[in-house]
Amino acid sequence: MFPSSPNINLRLLRLVTNANSIGVSKYKCVSFKDVIGIAKSVTSREHHESRVHNYRIDRALKIQSFIYDGSKHAYIDGIIYKVERTYISGSFIEIYLGESNLVEDDIDDFPD
Known about the structure:
By secondary structure, the protein is mainly β. It has one domain (8-107): Bacteriophage SPP1 head-tail adaptor protein (Thrombin, subunit H). It has one helix and seven strands. A six-stranded antiparallel barrel has the order 1-2-3-6-5-4. The radius of gyration is 15 Å and the shape is globular. The chain starts with 7 loop residues before the first strand and ends with a strand.
């Protein structure tokens, strides 16, 4: 496999929070999109920048820009990540992800 070949499957998730009648909030998945991306290494500089700005980067990847729909969460290998930042790089968008505390059971209508 070539270094810039698609090598990671992910699901972009659009989540909203809903409060029930007693005020307990729960996430609901309003849409999702299965995409293929290119895994990148998180550099020491990117890791340091994330610590300085008080967020965490666990994974980095690239997908084609036209595919990205502004989703703020991604599901990869059973883990739900939060999109911490994005960076447009030509026809690709780099997505930097931090592992969230969410699990599938926390989300109503989670796609199978």
